[in-house]
Amino acid sequence: MKAIVYNGKKNVDVENVEDPKIEKSDDIIIKVTSTAICGSDLHLIHGMIPNMPKGFRLGHETMGIVEEVGKDVVKVKKNDRVIIPFPVACGHCCYCEHGQFSQCDNSNPNGEAGGIFGYSNTFGGYAGGQAEYLRVPYANVGPTIVPEELQDEQVLFLTDVLPTSYWGVDIGGVKRGDTVVVLGCGPIGLTAIKWCILRGANRIIAVDNVGYRLKHAASYKGVETVNFEDQKANRYDACGLINDHLMFNVEMQRSGNRTLQGIRIAFYASSLFNSQPMRGVDFSKLKPIWVLMIADFPFLMIRINILKTIPLSAAAMRNP
Asked: Helices marked H in 61-128 — which ranges?
């Protein structure tokens, strides 16, 4: 079959590779009908993730038709159309039983986090879905049948983008009437904005330095935009800008120094707050929440107490 494979830093090719096979009794094989490139795939391409061998198959946003079924699979059957969530999860460890599938204890023998499709040996060494076929382990857990009336384009984002952005908004406690600032308007940031709208946020400010992203964000009714490279933005009324939530979702997908871009966004966020020293800050009244999204590493949400205006760096340095 054909698959997209990693052949070194900034070197990705389409190659003929061996077809996947049933390896365990709860495996399935799917024929891929749709797949997508995640922003975090760029971390692989730019050599930011260790243990990435040449020839490794990429992709963790995948759906398709079940072609083969292991003898112990009961959740799906041949010819079912399914989406495949990005985490590889056993379904019965302590983490899985508590709904924390990305931290599965059994799917990744190479590290503390759970396995991920197409994301290096560090995350389990599972071949990815940017291919004609994909082996899916623990098929009684992740694969979900898609209603016939829905097109691939309507459900593919359920493999990663929509749950990633929703979880950030949910764990941040966004509620009706809130003011929310979203830093970074790539796919995760834009869908997070939509979730905030659905939650009834009263005011949403989208921050980025990429024009077409800000234009897209501005197309959502009522969303304000700020270009952090605009000098006028530095004079934006910080006290009026932020009073409930700040979402930090650095989507480092453009050319150039991506780490530098993330730092610049963070420094801009810091500048929105008064430069008060940390001394005297009552951290017990702050609720900083670190959110590590396995499929989108630079994702951070911090909820900031509306009675305090302190540097973002001061809030971010404290682990909850």
From this structure: 94-97
> How many alpha carbons fall within 13 Å on the CB side of residue 104?
23
The predicted pLDDT at position 202 comes to: 87
**Sorting pLDDT into bands at 50, 70 and 90, what band is 232?**
low
* Mean pLDDT computed over every residue of the chain: 78
Written as one letter, the residue type at 231 is Q
Rounded to whole angstroms, the Cα distance separating 114 from 318 reads 25
Instruction: Find where tokens 């986090």 sit.
Output: 113
Average pLDDT on 11-28 reads 97
For residue 165, is pLDDT > 80? yes
State how far Cα 296 lies from the chain centre: 3
Distance CA 126, CA 116 (A): 7
Band the pLDDT of 167: cuts 50, 70, 90. Answer: confident
Q: What is the pLDDT of residue 238?
A: 38
Q: What share of the chain is helix, strand, coil (3-state, %, to 5)?
A: 25, 25, 50
Structure tokens at 95: 């983490």
Type of residue at 301 = M
Q: Is the pLDDT of residue 14 over 70?
A: yes
Helix, coil or strand: residue 226: strand
Give 245's DSSP letter: E
Question: Average pLDDT, stretch 11-25?
Answer: 97
Which pair of structure tokens corresponds to residue 282?
């009552």
**Cα–Cα distance between 12 and 54 in angstroms, integer?**
9
DSSP E strand stretches across the chain: 2-6, 12-16, 28-35, 56-57, 62-69, 81-84, 87-88, 115-116, 133-136, 144-145, 179-183, 203-208, 224-227, 245-249, 287-289, 299-303
pLDDT higher than threshold 80 for residue 259:
no
Could you list the beta-strand ranges (E) of 56-178: 56-57, 62-69, 81-84, 87-88, 115-116, 133-136, 144-145
**Cα dihedral value 111, 249, 64, 138, nearest 10:** 30
